[in-house]
Amino acid sequence: MKHLHPLCSRCVYWQLDSASSSGTVGHCHRYPPGIYMNPQTGTVVQKFPTTDKHHWCGEWDGDASRLMDAVRRSALSSAEPGGPGAPRD
């Protein structure tokens, strides 16, 4: 039996990278960005993991309750005055 995995593109934590020409690349915002240093230049950057929209991870083990809680929190914060998506002065 084929197991179906939740795809990154269907996850509330995934965001499409608008700068990507492929239209399938995005970033996982489930956790804070990692901190990386370029060994050649010494430049330190913060970066979210890059994934393709067809990728999947083991974070969701078939129990969608954590995902649904995240969706509810996101919807509630968006509905609050000054929340994400609110008009700015």
Secondary-structure-based class equals: alpha+beta
Portion of residues in beta strands equals 15-25%
Q: What is the helix tally?
A: 1
How many structural units, i.e. domains? 1
Weakly predicted, low-confidence segments: 85-89
Large-scale geometry:
globular
Proportion in helices: 10-25%
Can you summarize this structure?
By secondary structure, the protein is α+β, with helices and mostly antiparallel strands. It has one helix and five strands; from the N terminus they run E-E-E-E-E-H.
Task: Describe this protein's structure.
With 89 residues, the protein is α+β, with helices and mostly antiparallel strands. It has one domain. Helices cover 17% and strands 20% of the residues. The chain is built from 1 helix and 5 strands. Strands 1-2-5 form a 3-stranded antiparallel sheet, with no helix packed on it. A two-stranded antiparallel ribbon has the order 3-4. The protein is globular. Residues 85-89 have low confidence and may be disordered.
List the helices and strands and how they pair.
Elements: E1 14-16, E2 25-28, E3 34-37, E4 44-47, E5 50-52, H1 65-79
Antiparallel strand pairs: 1-2, 2-5, 3-4
For this entry, give a set of tags.
1 helix; three-stranded antiparallel β-sheet; single chain; alpha+beta; 89 residues; disordered C terminus
